[in-house]
Amino acid sequence: MFEHLQNKFSEALHILKGHNTITEINIASSLKEIGRALIDADVNYKIAKNFIQRVKEKSIGQKVLTSLNPKQLITKIVYDELVSLMGKKNVKMNLSNNPAIILLCGLQGSGKTSFSSKLAFFLRKKSKDPLLVAADFHRPAAIDQLELIAEKVNIPVFSLKESKNVIEIVEKSILYAYKKKRNVIIVDTAGRLAIDKMMMEEIKKIYQNFKPDEVLFIVDAMTGQDAINTAQSFSKVLNFDGVVITKLDGNSKGGVAITLSSVVKKPIKFISNGEKIEDLEVFHPDRIANRILGMGDIVSLVEKVQEQFDERKTKKIYRKILKNSFDFNDLLEQLQQVKKIGNLKNIISMIPGIDRYFSFDGNQKDSLKKVEAIIHSMTPYERNNPKILTDIMRKKRISKGSGITLNHIDIFLKQFHDMSKIMKKIHAHSGKKILKDFIHQIINKGNDV
Q1: For the whole model, what pTM was predicted?
Q2: Neighbour count for residue 440 (Cβ, 10 Å)
Q3: In sequence order, which residues have a C-beta less than 8 Å from that of residue 68 and are 6 or more positions away?
Q4: Same structural domain for residues 149 and 262?
């Protein structure tokens, strides 16, 4: 999601490594590279320039504590400025009414229909009972698209295919929600190729008649600065409550997520970063700043893991770790659990330093597919007994069966061996110290990147 920006920031901050003090000379090159990174990520030039100026002003003359070095201090200052630029804090939705009405709006192709289904799925996991309302009768098959997506996850959709009156559709959907005891109504409205009078009149009618609890404006991250301009224009006509950025998994460099909130003066509430229904995240400026600076996002990862937590399987794995008998079957099972959590690239970005373990060819998703192919090419006996895979003939057979080169087989086995060492180290500790040491290792790995 922010890989390009993360790499650029890492290079810029690496310039300061080895220095003992902060001076205008040694910080100049670093700030210059940070500025280039921001502009390259499609951040407005003036915003990037002001960002660099603020970091410079806060850096020069700062006394570096003995426990820190200049790189760590500048990273902290850059982190604070990124958080401020992205809106400072997460702003939650207002869902106090029953039913609460969420009105979605945005240009055609921005991803409103897909997002509405993702939001319904997200809210259901939060113990809500959502109802999707198909209020886009302008775009051919828009209603069918919404029904098809929602059916897969068993979320109800209200529609009046014979009606062309958006007020009638929403009004009857509210009565339906009361009848079916649905406590959140998500209204998917029509989009246009540009903000026009017809589009705004339609949205205004819904707003004036039903006073939605939340109005969310959807923007496509891949349109870059145009997304910011569109949101700015729309905000002048309708006072929406927040922004949703979609398609951050595409070719977007992330600049829109960094600058939109400060320009439009509205909070970013969600980001959509994949095609799967679960690929939706609540936007937390501090957590995103951590990811951009390569420090991961352990809190979001824990939240995602908790959603898919299987206590029985976890206890089983824990027992095997204690016995030092973690094998390839266990690894395969864990990979399957990881895939359920969400978009793999985003998960890996949440763990500082972990990307180095999934880099056969720089593509993490392909790397996991290769790992699965390798394990599936082993015999049941080999999966249960990792230590026997020192035999070259066994490795050649696995290589042929999986289509993975012998060199990559060796890399994978070494990685598994390294993991086993970590397991042994954890086994030597107990209770809360396990978690403390594990997090400490993760943080140290992140700082070395």
Answers
A1: 0.70
A2: 11
A3: none
A4: yes
